[in-house]
Write a structure and sequence with these properties.
Blueprint: H1 2-35, E1 53-59, H2 66-73, E2 83-89, H3 95-107, E3 112-116, H4 124-134, E4 140-143, H5 154-158, E5 167-176, H6 183-205, E6 217-220, H7 221-226, H8 237-247, E7 251-262, H9 268-295, H10 301-311, H11 316-325, H12 327-336, H13 341-347, H14 352-365, H15 373-389, H16 391-403, H17 436-457, H18 464-500
Parallel strand pairs: 1-2, 1-4, 2-3, 5-7
Antiparallel strand pairs: 4-6, 5-6
């Protein structure tokens, strides 16, 4: 039994190590891209030859943000006669009335804007996009989620890159309207910025597969259709279509210097729901697309390697969670099983993974000259700690994805939060319950506190940093989940009593 624990631990650490090596490769690619004097060729618009563009806005119950989205899109610097706006409205609340009013307003101003409603919400977002694409007039299709506020020159900065007829997608970088709202939004931005800075740029520079991020990007319509159209058999239809398109030899372009502002989740329970969808969807895409990548003889080995870890990046939560659970058995084994001391010494080598990841996030962080470098030294450990604490929640999502258990597409509620004084808990979409998973996270918190005490008693001080990260992370996630839940319930009760009075 003791040997089995050690072997499982070493396998988990090996995967994390290999993952960190791939991230190091992306970091090197990113730094090379910054030094490269070769720039992507981009033609300018012929003012008499603007291509037809369709803007798709997939909407489901977005009462607080849909109005500002439509206003933002209708401010685009683009000829009205070359622009079609599809509002793919699957809503079943007052959002539909807001959209109807806005559509009427802008139609009177000469915009080709339509509110498109389906009888059934079949296929969720993927189904809405597929239906909209089937009737879209545009040669190119730009997609924005409800919380995005793209700049007026978005199309002027993206469409010219399609001069190369092999380009199927142009993806832009996400930016955030509420990054400084709370420690939770700051840490989300910290993690996402690394993806949109180093991962996307590194993969694109290395000519590896990248992914359309579901929003703030433009597709060539013929690319969508050639790749098999939008499909709803995974929760990450964007990642799925991206891989199918690139296997068809379509090229993607990523623009790090073009930002599209959006809203980060402010409720940790909403964040957990978003994380569940992303991690489970990625696991579903592994089942659907990984083998196709591996056996494709026209995909180079380095790209296959990056694709494996790109598609399987959500599996990192499983291995981190395994290491977390094994922390106490390992503490006991190290003190009582001297015959395994060599294996434990070998495992110490894998600690270099954390140094690589620290460097990866540091380089991404310092790209923003407005941020204090000192803040990195609290953001990275806290980000790492909370990421580890999401291990139970996200591991379940990954396992469900691999075994083929289906679940509905749960959209992340947005509340038009821009100032620190804005209150989300009064919003109609605030999550009013916590599940069993939250209480299991509380139980794990007690388990790691117990392990920390045992490590001190056994004088295994090497395990203390791991326990500290786990305790800080699980206490933050558990207590925040309970606090945000009680806050939203309290506001609901108050609003109910106020309306009665």
């Amino acid at each position: 039994m003791e040997l089995a624990v050690v072997i499982i631990f070493l396998i988990s650490m090996s995967f994390i190590f290999l993952y960190s090596i791939v991230q190091l490769s992306l970091l090197i690619n990113y730094l090379k891209s910054k030094r490269s004097i070769v720039k992507k060729e981009r033609s300018e618009f012929d003012i008499n030859n603007y291509p037809q563009v369709t803007i798709q806005l997939p909407i489901y119950n977005e009462y607080y943000v849909v109005e500002r989205l439509i206003d933002s899109i209708c401010q685009f610097n683009y000829p009205k006669d070359k622009l079609e706006i599809q509002i793919l409205d699957d809503s079943n609340d007052e959002t539909t009335d807001i959209i109807s009013s806005k559509v009427h307003f802008y139609q009177l101003q000469g915009f080709d804007i339509k509110q498109i409603q389906r009888v059934k919400r079949t296929g969720y977002k993927a189904g809405a996009l597929k239906y909209g694409t089937s009737i879209a007039k545009g040669e190119f299709i730009a997609i924005f989620d409800a919380d995005f506020l793209p700049d007026a020159d978005f199309l002027l900065k993206t469409i010219p890159h399609f001069k190369d007829e092999n380009i199927g997608v142009v993806q832009t970088k996400w930016e955030y309207t509420n990054e400084d709202y709370s420690f939770l939004t700051k840490l989300q931005a910290f993690g996402l910025n690394a993806h949109f800075t180093i991962e996307q740029t590194g993969r694109n520079y290395g000519n590896h597969f990248i992914n359309f991020n579901g929003t703030a990007g433009v597709w060539r319509k013929s690319c969508i259709l050639d790749a098999g159209d939008w499909q709803s058999d995974t929760l990450t239809e964007d990642l799925d279509l991206s891989y199918r398109a690139q296997l068809k030899k379509w090229k993607f372009v990523y623009l790090e210097n073009v930002g599209s502002p959006s809203e980060l989740p402010v409720d940790i329970n909403a964040l957990k729901a978003q994380q569940f969808r992303w991690t489970k969807g990625a696991a579903e895409c592994v089942k659907k697309n990984l083998f196709k990548v591996i056996v494709n003889k026209e995909v180079k080995l380095s790209t296959k390697t990056h694709a494996i870890f790109h598609l399987m990046n959500s599996s990192i939560f499983v291995f981190v969670f395994i290491i977390s659970l094994l922390s106490f058995p390992l503490t006991w084994a190290k003190s009582n099983m001297e015959e395994y001391s060599l294996l434990f010494n070998i495992s110490s080598f894998f600690m270099i993974s954390w140094l690589i990841l620290a460097s990866f996030y540091f380089v991404a962080f310092i790209q923003d000259k407005q941020k204090s470098i000192l803040s990195y030294f609290w953001k990275f450990p806290l980000f790492l700690s909370i990421s580890m604490a999401l291990g139970l929640h996200n591991s379940l999502a990954v396992i469900e994805g691999y075994i083929g258990k289906k679940s509905p597409f749960i959209r992340t509620p947005k509340f038009n939060i821009t100032e620190k004084s804005d209150n989300w808990s009064t919003g109609k979409y605030a999550i009013k319950k916590v599940g069993l998973m939250t209480y299991l996270e509380g139980a794990l918190l007690l388990y790691f506190i117990w392990g920390f005490q045992c490590a001190i008693q056994l004088k295994d001080y090497q395990m203390l940093p791991l326990y500290i990260l786990l305790i800080v992370g699980y206490s933050t996630v558990f207590l925040s989940s309970i606090f945000h839940w009680k806050r939203s319930v309290k506001e609901e009760i108050y609003q109910g009593e106020y309306s009665k009075s």
